[in-house]
From TrEMBL:
Topology with respect to the bilayer: Multi-pass membrane protein
Pfam (any one): SecG
Gene Ontology biological process: intracellular protein transmembrane transport; protein secretion; protein transport by the Sec complex
Localization annotation: Cell membrane
Source superkingdom: Bacteria
GO cellular component: plasma membrane
Organism: Patiriisocius marinistellae
The protein's name: Protein-export membrane protein SecG
Similarity field: Belongs to the SecG family.
Gene of this entry: secG
Length: 114
């Protein structure tokens, strides 16, 4: 298994977790904390801490996703050094020059009349 494949699996896993954490939140601050009956006050279960946890986990997973994406390009950069060019050396190809006594003629019928 290559390094890029490992990074790809980790990126997919972190992206899935990030989607789950974002979907649990409510865009107006309700989300999971409001489903426990929490209003503006902190209750026994620590409803405010749930919102803080979801907020911190969103930022952490987003940062981790960014770092994994940047790190996944490192194996690709290192592998470019080992790639050999398939273009042949033009000095090694010899094109025969026309002989001095060869006569080049043009036929007006095949030349298009020019």
């Amino acid at each position: 298994m290559s390094t890029f494949t490992i990074f790809l699996i980790l990126i997919i896993f972190v992206a899935f977790l990030l989607i789950v954490v974002i979907m649990v939140q409510n865009p107006k601050g309700g989300g999971l904390s409001s489903s426990f009956g929490g209003g503006g006050t902190q209750q026994l279960g620590g409803v405010q801490k749930t919102t803080d946890f979801l907020d911190k986990s969103t930022w952490t997973l987003g940062g981790l996703l960014l770092v994994l994406i940047l790190l996944s390009s490192i194996p690709l950069v290192g592998s470019l050094d080992t790639v050999q060019s398939t273009v042949q050396d033009t000095d090694a190809i010899e094109i025969p020059a026309p002989a001095a006594n060869d006569v080049i003629t043009t036929d007006p019928e095949t030349d298009g009349g020019n």
